[in-house]
Predict the structure.
Amino acid sequence: MPDSAPQNQFLIAGGGIAGLATSIALGRMGLPVRVLERAEKFTDEGAGIQLGPNATKILEQWGVLDRLKKKAVSSEGIAIGDGLTGDHLATVPFGQTAQERYGAPFLLVHRSDLHNALLDVARTYSGFTIEMNTQALSFVQSTEGVSLKTNTGEMKGRALIIADGLWSQLRYEIDRGAALQFTGYMAWRALIDADEMPEPLQAPWTGLWLGKAAHLVHYPVCGGSKVNIVAVVADRWGGRSDGWSHEGDRDFLIPYFDKWSDLPAQVVQTPKAWRTWPLFKMPPLRAWTQGAVTLVGDAAHPVLPFLAQGGGMAIEDAAVLARTLEKHEEDPWQAFQPFEEARIERTARTSFESRQMGTIYHMGGLLRMARNFVLRRRSPEALLKRLDWLYEFQVD
Ligand SMILES: Cc1cc2nc3c(=O)[nH]c(=O)nc-3n(C[C@H](O)[C@H](O)[C@H](O)COP(=O)(O)OP(=O)(O)OC[C@H]3O[C@@H](n4cnc5c(N)ncnc54)[C@H](O)[C@@H]3O)c2cc1C
């Protein structure tokens, strides 16, 4: 069937955080957007997501935060502990401190609450459409525009924004050398009712417990009624290619935490059901852009979750892409290359620092003792200051 949609539209492949954030950023400029999403429907897989002030500041400007606030939990900070001894090591303060320092909150949300809020706001723009069950397969472009082949037919647009996530296939059409590498770590995620949490851990904080080759994170979501738990452990990956989240067997996970102190071990023992994610890294791409086609979000720059910034980077990408289009008379041929240049250094740094965090979290033996010694001596203010480069981000 011939495609009757207007051909001046921006095609977006993927309706995840990056695709929807980009839809809003372009919608605000009055640009027509057509999102193609492979999934039949959006599910609530993926549990919690932490959003730093760099991301919430942008969401506030877009009106997304208003829709999200009731379901979000404002984090008081991160309480860092040693998993083996249960000792408290350090505090990174958020709450009012983050609000005053960065002008925006640090929020803990369920991923589907974020997704729904993004979708609701995207739908307020008359030029926005989304097609489910539609998989982007390949593209060709000319000076006339971009032609995208999908499983439901061919579509034309003035530009294509690839937002198809970590497992992006379209990125290989931009950089054939792109190479995802398994990190040797699996993330296990679970959601429990808040009253199932051990009482000392029921406050609106992120708990971060460090251990040799494993760490544990937990924080409240869904307005405080649920708690999201993430356990990261060194493991082999079965190499499954049918999606990236699978059911996990708790009897396999629990022994990793056998020697941990009671409180964090109890957290790991509580959930009945877990899902697993293999964690991947990718060296920076040689290019994200080809004419009127560019990449955003995990498709462009997968980030390990140890700084909780993958979604935040996708939201920043969207805001910077729109700003760059504004500066270049809405011409994707002119704007996409400067967009890539504006983003490459920051996303590479975030990716690098996230990997470093993983190394620090998982130290054992003498290194662990040295790390704990340093952490115990760092004031909350000093720890927060080290994150200024991340949270002070402004779209210029
Ligand atoms: C364990 C874990 C914890 C995390 N915690 C945090 C956190 O606390 N804070 C944070 O900011 N980030 C976190 N992240 C990272 C964050 O989830 C990702 O960075 C973010 O989801 C990336 O968004 P995206 O839209 O680029 O990709 P995705 O969310 O993967 O979305 C891609 C979309 O594209 C669709 N798609 C794929 N292929 C095609 C195709 N060919 N055609 C059409 N559609 C297609 C998919 O169905 C999907 O809907 C975490 C990640 C993990 C694994």
